[in-house]
Amino acid sequence: MRTITTLLLLFTSSLLIAQKTVNATEILKTIEKEENITISNATIVGVLDLTYMNKALPNLPKRKRWWNNGGSNTIEKQIVSKISFINCVFEDDVLAYIPHEDSGYTFVANFEDDVTFRNCTFEGKSMFKYSDFEYNTDFSGSKFLEDTTFKYASFDKDISFKNTNFDEPATFKYAKFRKFVSFANSIFQETTTFKYTEFNGGVSFNNVKFEEDLNIKYMEVSGEFDIKNMIVNYDIDSKYTKINGRSFNSYLFKK
């Protein structure tokens, strides 16, 4: 596989830093060829629709009735390319989930190889609802300035959300983390939801700041549960939460 690489250009003689601009259309063309993506220090312009919804719309199958398939009319796109964005700015939406009202279908992207969005800034929406991340995933150091969701997302391998910043409400409701995940040193500016989230390999909220409410109702943790220096400025809803089989309050009391 070839790799597309966009690097920071540094002209030491004039101390000028020139930043590359990459069109989302070119990235999507490369992924469609099943080639790897490695982009650093770049601004990405245009909507990065990883579901390829517009290509799928003309060839949609007949909609299934809800009583035949549980109500699901989902078109899934399997991304086999290894994807790496480091120190990038996404000016527009990054979409791995699109509910299309006119067709009644939902379009979802799944990832079969490593996915890296390290130290990136998402200026538009970042939607990863229902996405399966089958290999290592890294969102560490990134900033989410608009709506974002990882609801129902599944993470099979190593995953990091260290040092992330969520400006808008963040939801990980029903998400599944099969290995240890760290949110250490992250900041959640608005209400945050981990309701029904499963942490099968442990989780760290070390030094995390939740500026508003935190909903961990029905959340289940197996393994390490690090909440040292965690701050929640408003309410915590921990009803039916289980930490290694114990209630949240019982866990805190034991600690």
Characterization of this structure:
- This protein is mainly β and 255 residues long.
- 9% of the residues lie in helices and 40% in strands.
- The strands form 6 sheets. A 9-stranded parallel beta sheet has the order 1-5-9-14-18-22-26-30-34, covered by helices on one side. Strands 4-6-10-15-19-23-27-31-35 form a 9-stranded parallel beta sheet.
- The longest helix has 9 residues, at 24-32.
- It is globular.
Q: What is the secondary structure topology, with strand pairs?
A:
Elements: E1 3-6, E2 9-11, E3 16-18, E4 20-23, H1 24-32, E5 36-40, E6 42-45, E7 48-49, H2 53-56, H3 66-69, E8 74-79, E9 83-86, E10 89-90, E11 94-95, E12 97-100, E13 105-111, E14 115-118, E15 121-122, E16 126-127, E17 132-133, E18 137-138, E19 143-144, E20 148-149, E21 154-155, E22 159-160, E23 165-166, E24 170-171, E25 176-177, E26 181-182, E27 187-188, E28 192-193, E29 198-199, E30 203-204, E31 209-210, E32 214-215, E33 220-221, E34 225-226, E35 231-232, E36 236-237, E37 242-243, E38 246-247, H4 248-254
* Uncertain stretches of 5 or more adjacent residues: 1-18, 66-71
Give the helix level as a range of percent: under 10%
Record field, number of beta strands: 38
Question: What is the average per-residue confidence, as pLDDT, rounded to a whole number?
Answer: 90
Brief write-up:
This protein has 255 residues and is mainly beta.
List descriptors.
nine-stranded parallel β-sheet, 38 strands, mainly beta, disordered N terminus, single chain, 255 residues, 40% strand, 9% helix, globular
